[in-house]
UniProtKB/TrEMBL annotation:
<dbReference type="GO" id="GO:0005737">
    <property type="term" value="C:cytoplasm"/>
</dbReference>
<feature type="binding site">
    <location>
        <position position="39"/>
    </location>
    <ligand>
        <name>a divalent metal cation</name>
    </ligand>
</feature>
<keyword id="KW-0963">Cytoplasm</keyword>
<protein>
    <recommendedName>
        <fullName>Ribonuclease HII</fullName>
        <ecNumber>3.1.26.4</ecNumber>
    </recommendedName>
</protein>
<keyword id="KW-0378">Hydrolase</keyword>
<feature type="binding site">
    <location>
        <position position="135"/>
    </location>
    <ligand>
        <name>a divalent metal cation</name>
    </ligand>
</feature>
<feature type="domain" description="RNase H type-2">
    <location>
        <begin position="32"/>
        <end position="221"/>
    </location>
</feature>
<dbReference type="GO" id="GO:0003723">
    <property type="term" value="F:RNA binding"/>
</dbReference>
<dbReference type="InterPro" id="IPR022898">
    <property type="entry name" value="RNase_HII"/>
</dbReference>
<dbReference type="InterPro" id="IPR036397">
    <property type="entry name" value="RNaseH_sf"/>
</dbReference>
<comment type="function">
    <text>Endonuclease that specifically degrades the RNA of RNA-DNA hybrids.</text>
</comment>
<dbReference type="InterPro" id="IPR024567">
    <property type="entry name" value="RNase_HII/HIII_dom"/>
</dbReference>
<keyword id="KW-0255">Endonuclease</keyword>
<keyword id="KW-0479">Metal-binding</keyword>
<dbReference type="GO" id="GO:0030145">
    <property type="term" value="F:manganese ion binding"/>
</dbReference>
<dbReference type="Pfam" id="PF01351">
    <property type="entry name" value="RNase_HII"/>
</dbReference>
<comment type="similarity">
    <text>Belongs to the RNase HII family.</text>
</comment>
Length: 221
């Protein structure tokens, strides 16, 4: 079973505007690794759910990293590049469409997060984070101490950084999907249920990237 740590006060103990509070709280010394974990792609009708795990350097300019949804695509790309050059340890993982269908989107998201943490450990040459700061309500099924944080992207720079990596990675995958299935417009909406996407499904039927258990797709299977 995976441990969680949260003294009840801790979730509300952060100082407003300080997005490195939790990282400092758990870091006993420079050797203590604190990772942020987030996912992108729970809501779309097509494509995988992608997660990322990021360990920021203790001396980084953490204030640059904000919720990916509040950044422009150009800003996300710039910060994605920065995270791969500033000494951060980065891992990404995904759960595919068939896995989403077989286990539901929540469990698939947690699986993608687990894979992202494993990839982050590999990128760090086997060094495991001491604590995980996880966006959302649910811990990841791993034997690492964790603190789930609702709206974690606004409370932890590490989670915000993970949200950027997950979003950029998934957007790139959906841009590749657009080359294979241009009739659906994946490059424009990344698989989200826009009006244009729904019309394309109604006209062409689902493609192999569509989540056949999701409303908006299952009607056309």
């Amino acid at each position: 079973m995976y441990p969680c740590i949260p003294p009840p006060f801790l979730r509300t103990a952060a100082i407003p505007g300080d997005s490195f509070f939790f990282e400092r709280w758990f870091r006993a010394d420079e050797e203590t690794l604190i990772a942020g974990v987030d996912e992108a792609g729970r809501g779309p009708l097509a494509g995988p759910v992608v997660a990322a795990c990021v360990i920021l350097p203790s001396n980084c300019a953490y204030h640059h990293f904000r919720d990916s949804k509040k950044l422009t695509p150009r800003q996300r790309e710039r910060l994605f590049t920065l995270l791969h050059s500033n000494g951060s340890i980065v891992g990404a993982g995904l759960a595919g469409v068939r896995e989403i269908e077989s286990m539901n989107i929540l469990q698939a998201s947690l699986l993608a997060m687990q894979r992202a943490v494993t990839a982050c450990i590999a990128a760090g040459h086997g060094r495991r984070p001491r604590y995980l700061l996880v966006d959302g309500r649910f811990p990841i099924p791993m034997s690492i101490s964790q603190l789930p944080l609702i709206k974690g992207e606004s409370k932890s720079a590490s989670i915000a950084a993970a949200s950027i990596v997950a979003k950029v990675t998934r957007d790139r995958l959906m841009a590749e999907a657009h080359q294979r299935y241009p009739q659906y417009g994946f490059a424009q909406h990344q698989g989200y249920p826009t009006g244009a996407h729904r019309q394309a499904i109604a006209k062409h039927g689902p493609c192999p990237l569509h989540r056949r258990t999701f409303r908006g797709v299952v009607e056309f299977v």
